[in-house]
């Protein structure tokens, strides 16, 4: 396949960039002509001197991207780069399921399926370490000028650009073959104000949160205020807050009373695709402000976010298990799950959030979160559940405890997850109406997801949550159906990571067309969540954004006309594909 140069005219509305000639590879695949980003096997790949100049611009913060497992291997790819280090290898092995260690690494991705499961820690140093779908260079940014330098360099050289915060994303959006990565993990500043006086109509407390701040870290800082405050964040301690989480919407334990994370954002400080520092809020750049609140991670790179804080609330929690310790009778188990899940509307109407995990024969609900509740109150709200389980003779084990604050419940009752697992993800938001009209069908579809075919098993993570309870309407990019939500469940088709490409495609097919189909049929009024969804979701524009999509597409074209930022199934990516077995990002030539 010959390399042909092509011209891409930049028609930027927001900047004064004139037409720039870019060179990239043109490939034909199945009769489609693709114009690709520049990769190291192309003549348009930057020369060493250009990388050195970039390194100088970012004060030496540019590094060759080295996969986390590399110290256990003699060689990185076929390069002359020597990476083996016995002590460092032991350290990698000891920390392979340590979320904080992985998020602190320059490029590690917590879901190795999306790195092509390459360069894993091993006791055999002769085993090859290929880059797989990891990037090529990484800027460990410590200033917004470093972010700008990376954005400008990627734009000017037509490179695949990846913004990497924690590497948590299980849709593979923070890693990419042959890319330049900008790591935002060091942006850890948080400042609080008791009385916000910026644009918007909010005069309560607020916090300015750096792009690299992680969930529990932020909650801890909120709790350390006097008096302590809360902010809407996710349940996982190490997921980032101001990166993918807010940009996709962000649900969490306080969402039923205070709305989605993005509902509470007052202002964004970002670097745009054209390399400009821009503030987006109710007054400045309101279109970008609207899109950044739930439109997906492709509108700009966040430097910091200002969001509302709220006073702390007394909170009660309950844990409940039904599993093989209590019953091996699948009919009994299934009935227990049906009873539990059919009460979803009841829980959220009482302001609750419920986190649960479901797999074959195991239901682990930890916890039911009852903000503004004491022990008596949460037991009263959960009485219909216990009454129905008792009446049906379902064995269960439950435990309830009240805390003076949400933060104390969060630390005590929420559990850490295990990283470095492989699965293909999907899921669905079920609405009040779905539960009311077809609750049994929804429960059946979720139970089905635990073993969708004879040889595939599933694992689901459920969130009973209703952002519309606390914030009935919101002027932002979040799918309107979230306002009618009652239960949002992530489904996983479990993999080992050693499957062939063909089997991987087949597992994706099971997620989309077997599990996904069952979910869509059970919840016809529902929608899907861009941060925790299926990369092959049919009709994804409608499914992830509904009526908000057309405006998002317009805003994307305005702020990133050439497609510098990319994540599959996000606004304006219709013409883009990652081709050649998960490697090159290319645009269909028109
Ligand atoms: C264990 C676990 C628990 C989770 N719990 C919740 C939850 O309770 N609620 C919820 O809503 N979601 C939850 N999620 C999903 C989570 O919101 C997404 O995985 C999110 O993308 C993670 O964002 P990150 O910045 O930490 O991750 P990364 O993987 O680093 O980045 C994710 C995406 O955001 C982009 N991005 C990162 N930083 C920036 C930035 N500064 N500017 C622009 N783009 C950026 C990346 O390019 C990428 O596309 C959970 C995920 C995991 C793995
Ligand atoms: C960038 O510069 C620093 C400091 O001089 C150096 O340690 C590092 O290796 C350089 N990065 C690359 C990719 O050459
Ligand atoms: C390394 O591998 C690539 C692709 O397989 C090849 O093009 C290149 O020539 C190799 N480099 C060396 C030094 O062997
Ligand atoms: C991804 O993994 C498969 C299976 O090991 C391998 O054949 C393929 O070459 C890998 N791709 C890259 C880019 O490393
Ligand atoms: C602020 O409140 C005023 C008066 O209620 C209203 O007109 C305006 O639209 C509000 N602005 C925002 C950004 O919500
Ligand atoms: C369920 O089966 C497992 C494995 O055989 C056994 O250990 C457990 O005791 C059984 N549970 C009950 C409630 O009988
Ligand atoms: C099963 O339930 C018992 C009783 O609550 C609990 O101790 C155990 O940890 C549970 N096991 C799993 C795998 O959840
Ligand atoms: C799945 O297993 C069942 C029971 O063993 C069998 O009857 C059925 O034919 C299998 N289905 C497929 C598609 O293999
Ligand atoms: C929410 O559900 C009600 C009916 O239950 C429906 O009338 C309304 O249109 C729904 N709203 C959204 C945004 O889907």
Automatic annotation (TrEMBL):
Keywords: Oxidoreductase, Signal. Gene3D superfamilies: 3.30.465.10. One of its GO terms (molecular function) is FAD binding. Residues 1-19 form the signal peptide. The keyword Signal applies. Residues 130-312 form the FAD-binding PCMH-type domain. It holds the Pfam family FAD_binding_4. It comes from the Eukaryota. Belongs to the oxygen-dependent FAD-linked oxidoreductase family. This is FAD/FMN-containing isoamyl alcohol oxidase-like protein MreA.
